[in-house]
Amino acid sequence: MDSSRKVNSLYPIQEPLFPRKRSRENLDRFIPDRESMDIGYANAVLTERRTGKENPVESSASSVAYQKLLAETLNMNRRILTFKSKPPAPIEPIPRALLSPPSHKAKSRPRRHISQTAEKILDAPDLSDDFYLNLLDWGSNNILAIALESTVYLWDASNSSTSELVTVSDDDGPVTSISWAADGRHIAIGLNNSCVELWDSISVKLLRKLKVHHERVGSLAWNKEILTTGSRDGNIINNDVRVRSHIVQTFLGHQEEVCGLKWSASGQQLASGGNDNLVFIWDRSVASPNAHWLHRLQDHTSAVKALSWCPFQANLLASGGGEGDDTIKFWNAHTGSCVNSVNTGSQVCALLWNSHERELLSSHGFTENQLILWKYPSMVRLAELSGHTSRVLYMTQGPDGFTVASAGDETLRFWNVFGIPEVAKSAPKQSRMPFSPKYYCIR
Fold it and tell me: WD repeats at which positions (predicted)?
């Protein structure tokens, strides 16, 4: 072999762009490109190795020296049938970047700030510390009504003005419940003498007085033209305020005072809670004057005042038990089954759902006297709002769906717990303004 022979350069062999055959059909040997190989060199090496015997004869010293020189000259320390350079990367017919659009990370919504201090505080002297009463309600007219002993005051949230609606006599009072109608004009007032008064808040006139029970009326709930009343006598009565014979239906089931009433958003189901530790769900479609309950729920071990229908799941009802029970329970109103129960550690006085998020707000009495914001359905505590020094017995939500008012310890506190209203007038935080029974204005 001529040692001066130049080694031909090797060109990479590209793999054809055809699908491979199955292993049984792929029987052809690999045939390399002859132009890119040293055929003479390969033949010499293979021939020499194959002509040796099982026990080869040792080569002479001169032969060994010659083989060494030949190897150095022809660069025999090479592997056979290998590329001299790496093959180029295969060319992709379509770039991968074009096969899938670039992924953009979803913008995470910033976590809202929940202030743990009240935005505003109003004095509410002579506010009754009675678990079974309902003395606070915020109407669709953005006017908040609160009963202090025998007087009902109206606080206009738009201009922070206070006025007196009515002061009942000592024989009729004190006031035991209040509730705005959906129109934001008419308001019902339950009294200790077992009567209910219906007032026009604009003209400040008594429209009607209903004698419906035998004992005090501690709970009220509107369903369009129907005013539902609950009493210490254990009865629940539907009153059509448009007609002379106003009693149209009676719900009999509670054996003790009815302290909680809430109609569902559809107006078809009524939830009631009582001092007998029971929760009832009633169906309005039952035409009987003395309707039977749809579900009788008896898992609570204390009085049930706190009731709230879920705004994003129509058949879900939340209820809260009093001292000794301390639980919030969630009910399937269709089946009557308890789907969850959470021990809060203190007396549950009121419940409000957040209409903007899947959250629930609870107010508490013994022993924490606080408000707790819960994430639903995990029931993780998102915030604990402190400030009240005694039981937070009353709680209501403003028409904006953001602001919550709570009452206890003779104060009325406002919280932006559900978020900050889009249009809100700036007001000094922790401002303290009294309800003034004498001058009917905020000083």
Answer: 168-200, 251-283, 385-417
Per-residue pLDDT of the chain (443 residues; tens, 9 = 90+): 444 444 444 444 344 444 444 444 444 555 555 565 566 655 655 555 444 444 545 556 676 677 667 656 655 554 444 344 444 555 555 555 545 555 555 455 567 888 889 999 999 999 999 999 999 999 999 999 999 999 999 999 999 999 999 999 999 999 999 999 999 999 999 999 999 999 999 999 999 999 999 999 999 999 999 999 999 999 999 999 999 999 999 999 999 999 999 999 999 999 999 999 999 999 988 767 777 899 999 999 999 999 999 999 999 999 999 999 999 999 999 999 999 999 999 999 999 999 999 999 999 998 889 999 999 999 999 999 999 999 999 999 999 999 999 999 999 999 999 987 655 444 444 444 444 333 222 22
Q: Are 331 and 317 in contact (CB under 8 A)?
A: yes
Angle at the Cα of 250 from the Cα atoms of 350 and 188, rounded to 5 degrees: 50
- Enter the DSSP assignment of 70: H
Complete edge-to-edge strand list for the sheet that includes strand 205-211: 175-180, 186-191, 195-200, 205-211
> How far is Cα of residue 274 from the mean position of the Cα atoms in its chain?
28
Asked if 135 and 128 count as a contact pair (C-beta separation under 8 A), the reply is: yes
Enter the tokens of residue 251.
Answer: 């719900």
In sequence order, the 6+-apart residues with CB closer than 8 A to the CB of 4 are none
Contact 348, 333 (CB under 8 A): no
At residue 51, the 3 state secondary structure works out as helix
Burial class (CB in 10 A: 0-12, 13-18, 19+), 2: exposed
Contact partners, residue 337, CB within 8 Å, separation at least 6? 331
Looking up tokens 């491979």, which residue turns up? 20
Number of residues written out for the chain: 443
- Give the bridge partners for 155, in sequence order: 144, 162
The CB-side HSE value for 250 (13 A sphere, CA atoms) comes to: 12
Neighbours of 29 (CB within 10 A): 5
- Those residues whose C-beta lies under 8 Å from the C-beta of residue 71, and which sit 6 or more positions away, are 77
52: which residues sit within 8 A by CB, 6+ positions away? none
Q: Domains in the chain, ordered, with CATH?
A: 120-434 (2.130.10.10)
* d(C-alpha 122, C-alpha 294), whole Å: 41
CA distance 190 to 192: 7
